Amino acid sequence: MQIINGKEVSKSTRDKVKVMVNDFVADKGRVPCLAVILVGEDPASHTYVKNKILGCEEVGMKSLTFRESKDSTDEHVAEIIKSLSSDETVDGILVQLPLPKHLDERYLLSLIPDCKDVDGFSPNNLGLLAMNTPRTVSCTPYGVMELLASTGVDVAGKNAVVIGRSNTVGKPMAMLLLNANATVTVCHSKTVNLKEITSNADILIAAIGIPNFVTEDMVKEGAIVIDVGINRVDGKLCGDVDFANVSSKCSHISPVPGGVGPMTISMLLYNTLMAAKYE
After folding, report:
1. Which residue is catalytic, options 91, 116, 117, 119?
2. CB count in 10 Å sphere of residue 193
3. Are 184 and 176 in contact (CB under 8 A)?
4. Exactly one of 91, 96, 202, 240 is catalytic; which is it?
5. For residue range 195-215, what is the model confidence (pLDDT) as tens digits?
6. CATH of 29-113, one of 2.30.30.50, 3.40.190.10, 3.40.50.10860, 3.30.450.20
7. Does 2 participate in catalysis according to the annotation?
8. Per CATH, which fold does 139-261 belong to?
9. pLDDT for the residue 232
């Protein structure tokens, strides 16, 4: 069993992005810029945004952060998005999720121009991904593909199972795997005989948001297991996979923390640079 070290793969990605940013600045005479809108006081969101700011600094990008009250209205957040959308010095716009429940997430995300949608959540960007002509790919699934590539295993022809069907992870993850010529099954809360399906997977992606949901008897001997889940149990982070018991059965497995998490931010930095190049 080999542990897939997301920190190492992330560092390699950021090193490449830093070189590309330097080349961009030399060519264009300006620094790529990411704007992040953070609404409310969710502790995890504040941590994520802090790490995104540090990531920008690491690769030489500029970042703007708009910290808004939890009582902010749709109209207020919309005005910020519209202002950033028309600002030619801003290349990427990210609205940190989750938003407070009274805000209309779908409406607000729809206001971000496709060319500045560095999270890859817009209908058009998801549609382009489905057509295998992607412009901006959702950061977490994109990071998972980089982790899979780091194993040296060819995804083509493999039986891949994704547990989770969210618009942010599960669906784009399935499309990326299909585009890489894997045979893909998407499972979810209504799936019957889940264990039977997952135990035949050469590649198993867990993105269901339930601590230690994937157990040893759900995993095929020698499978590659990628754990997208980030859960907090008794004050400690854990994933959707029962790592202690599943790991001995895998050929490769990503840990939590230190697996997918670092890659999500690295791919966000890459997407922001690509957005700057689209101008």
Report:
1. 119
2. 9
3. no
4. 96
5. 999 999 999 999 999 999 999
6. 3.40.50.10860
7. no
8. Rossmann fold (3.40.50)
9. 87
